[in-house]
């Protein structure tokens, strides 16, 4: 029994160990019933230089990596191809900067829902690694500390 439990724990941890990216404080903003988009936020820290290149979730028709930045007097949001994750430095995906947009939502996202999300990373000269996690939906008025 202990061997089976240990094997199950190792299998569950394998994607995180393989990707060597620590994912913390991931959350998704809840939506009103008619909303077709929401934001996904988290902190990523990689043990080696890598890039976040793709995100997917079964609740969204499309998931895009976005960046918000000032252009003149206007804050604008636009998709980016990847986010660089320098070795050992935390990168926050947060409102007002880099974040993930979940678009063409298939249903309302309610506080407390657990949403599957897959992150794909690319390292120099190596194949892509993936991390799949369950992300909790937080209320519309949620503000991270």
From TrEMBL:
Keywords: Signal. SUPFAM superfamilies: DR1885-like metal-binding protein. The keyword Translocase does not apply. It holds the Pfam family PCuAC. InterPro entries: LpqE-like, Lxx211020-like, PCuAC_sf. Residues 1-19 form the signal peptide. This is Copper chaperone PCu(A)C. Transmembrane segments: none annotated. It comes from Duganella aceris.
């Amino acid at each position: 029994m202990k061997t089976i439990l240990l094997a199950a724990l190792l299998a569950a941890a394998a994607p995180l160990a393989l990707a060597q990216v620590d994912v913390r404080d991931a959350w998704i903003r809840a939506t009103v019933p008619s909303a077709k988009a929401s934001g996904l936020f988290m902190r990523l820290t990689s043990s080696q230089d890598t890039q976040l290149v793709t995100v997917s979730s079964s609740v969204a028709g499309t998931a895009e990596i976005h960046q918000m930045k000032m252009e003149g007097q206007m804050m604008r949001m636009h998709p980016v191809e990847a986010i660089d994750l320098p070795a050992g430095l935390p990168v926050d995906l947060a409102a007002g900067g880099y974040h993930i947009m979940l678009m063409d939502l298939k249903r309302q996202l309610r506080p407390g829902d657990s949403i599957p999300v897959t992150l794909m990373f690319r390292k120099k000269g190596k194949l892509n690694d993936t991390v799949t996690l369950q992300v909790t939906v937080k209320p519309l008025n949620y503000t991270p500390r």
